[in-house]
Amino acid sequence: MRQRSRAFFAAHIIDIAVILLAICAEVFVFNMPFWRMMTSTPTHIAQGQVTLGPGLKAQGHDAAKVTDENQAWIEMTSDAPIEYLRVNLPAGHIAGDAESGVAAADDTTDVVTWTMDARQKDAGGLRSNPDSVKQYSPWYEDSQYIRIGGGMNTIRFHYQTHNGATVALSSFTVNPRMPFRLAPVRVCLELLAVLFLIAFRPGSRLYRYRFSLRDRRCAMGLTAVFLLQSAIVIVIWLLFGGNHAVPMLRPAPTGDYYDPGLYNQMADALIHGHVSLDFPVNPDLAAMANPYDTLSRQQIAAHTHSGAPIPVDVAFKNGKYYSYFGVLPALTLFAPYKLLTGMNLELGVAVLVLALLVVASSMLLLVQLTRLITRRIGAPSLGSVLLVASTMMLGYPLFIDMKKIIIHQLPQTMGVTLIMLALSCWMESTMRGLSKRWLAAGSLCIGLVVSCRPQMAFAAIIAIALFWGDIVRLWRDGRASRQAVRTELAVWAAALLPFIAAVIPALLYNKARFGSLLDFGAKYNLTNFDMAHQTFPWTHVFTYVWLYLAQPPNVQTEFPFIDQTVQPMPVWLLPQTFSYGGLFVALAPFACVLFAAIAWRRGLKRAHMNALFMTVLLYAVAVLVANAHIAGYDVRYTLDFGWAVMLMLAMYLLTADACRPCEPTTVVRRSARDPQGFLMRGIPEVDASEVRVPGAGAVQTLPQTLPAMSDISRIMTVFVVIGALCAYAFLFFSLFRTDPPILNAWLWWDVRSWFLFI
């Protein structure tokens, strides 16, 4: 029994250490105020002991009116150094309530904001720091504990409000006994982090089992990851308003008018048999010599006497408005919903549905890629597959995009979904001996991408790498017999005809709107700069590529610790846009292992995936440069190429994992249709332990249990796991970057209270 206990402890020492570390973090770090103030002596400072600044005029015992916002402060002094302060609100007073009169920095969020001056007991004067901001909400008790520290005895709070506002005069408790809190949300996140580390550490059992869809453990693991990723999407969607979110300003302060119902307008136009939108055209806009001149148009929008607003992010040509967004979401979602129910489809619902489809199609593509690798060099481990599945959405970056409920997401997410489906169908075609049915399905999907986001249809070049061996074989066979020629023509017809059938309607739609098959209308867009006449120097592409890939995040020392990095944008007439950080630095730092692919590309070479890897890389670079040149920087454009980066990462990690040395045991099946020896043609499905040996005609059985990882694989896995945890932490804190909206105010204040120990 003692030997078994020792063996168990030795095998699970890292797991035990992770669990103990999480427990210590919860008990001693996050609850540090409880331990520090456990023996403190609380001191009550009544309202009458608080000094009012000359900018405050007392109104009774519980309130004061702001007469000078620059001198609206309160001051208190304590004999003991103030470590923590408790705000004791007058009975019945709540923020943002006109009758109780408590000032709120934002009446919709009920936030009281102060800046703080302080001094020590023997210091000569107050230390002023306008950046030292303290906030609390009378609605949430945990927010009313304020960290002071630094041995300060005198505190002066400056109200951040306006003249004429009424503020509550609170009493305070100096150095109160702090409660011991087990915050449910925090505990759940700690539990998930512990499970993530235990499941994906290099010594985990998950890396010893080969992946196979026939194995119930593998299917259950993938299902769990899919449900968890979907839950993250839904939670973020709900936190930022869900179906009730206000997608964009309407109208904007510039006088421009954003219409979140644009896709419903497109659906109405298509149902009634025309392609132009039913917006009334402002006569002042129609009279402009250059309606695409942003500053002139905004001046007209702000001062026009016409009742017709001037919409933004629509195309304007020949006195009519058109949508330059991809039409496919209108055809597949909004128009059918309108015809079936007679009502408009809410934008928030469409955003959520397409985001969940991205998650589902990504999991499907990962399964197909794993099956393809299995047939070429053997199955990777269950742990590697689940690790990739758990990180893909971070690099897209779908989760960051869900913070905004805007129409711009719809063509992007539908385009990504179709690309994933196309690649999945093509991989199935290669695994079924060049099945024409699956080949045609993939070509149809990639053709439909043109009706979503045209530049993303460049992903069609990936088919060349996937089918290059088949293209060469068909060409050689066609030179030998007429029957082979007919077979070759049938394959090309299956590849090209569905693509052409999907692209032609998109081109005719262009012709109907703008008079040209290849004009998608971007240059007629009424947006933040003149796309029709403004040129963008290619030299600036390097700057924007840096922003997309390598911009360091703006990390701060106070909650929420993450802020946007404001960047100058010469191409936009708006002076700046924001960045959360580059893809390889902030959004998905674990993807940096791709830079080691050159040195450790043995798995890609053995799986005959070098060409596929380089083709996906070519797509990512081309779309990144095109977006940077045409539109500059916006974090949402990362989705156009982020999926390709994550696909390359999946190829790299899975092939490297599948190449662990392992001796085959028995020959189970032969296939004369695959002389190259790496595709197993004609075999619909094989067990994960079956692998073709290159150059031979036999399928050999490998042991179900994989050997231990090499040292370099362990290092790579540790880097990916730690990088993924950092990316999830970055995502979590970025959700709280702004003042809390009403729908997530409780969570904002709850998470903020976790860090009172700082």
From TrEMBL:
<feature type="transmembrane region" description="Helical">
    <location>
        <begin position="578"/>
        <end position="600"/>
    </location>
</feature>
<feature type="transmembrane region" description="Helical">
    <location>
        <begin position="612"/>
        <end position="631"/>
    </location>
</feature>
<feature type="transmembrane region" description="Helical">
    <location>
        <begin position="715"/>
        <end position="736"/>
    </location>
</feature>
<keyword id="KW-0472">Membrane</keyword>
<feature type="transmembrane region" description="Helical">
    <location>
        <begin position="7"/>
        <end position="30"/>
    </location>
</feature>
<protein>
    <recommendedName>
        <fullName>Glycosyltransferase</fullName>
    </recommendedName>
</protein>
<feature type="transmembrane region" description="Helical">
    <location>
        <begin position="347"/>
        <end position="367"/>
    </location>
</feature>
<feature type="transmembrane region" description="Helical">
    <location>
        <begin position="379"/>
        <end position="399"/>
    </location>
</feature>
<feature type="transmembrane region" description="Helical">
    <location>
        <begin position="637"/>
        <end position="654"/>
    </location>
</feature>
<feature type="transmembrane region" description="Helical">
    <location>
        <begin position="405"/>
        <end position="426"/>
    </location>
</feature>
<feature type="transmembrane region" description="Helical">
    <location>
        <begin position="489"/>
        <end position="510"/>
    </location>
</feature>
<feature type="transmembrane region" description="Helical">
    <location>
        <begin position="221"/>
        <end position="240"/>
    </location>
</feature>
<feature type="transmembrane region" description="Helical">
    <location>
        <begin position="438"/>
        <end position="469"/>
    </location>
</feature>
<feature type="transmembrane region" description="Helical">
    <location>
        <begin position="182"/>
        <end position="200"/>
    </location>
</feature>
<keyword id="KW-1133">Transmembrane helix</keyword>
<keyword id="KW-0812">Transmembrane</keyword>
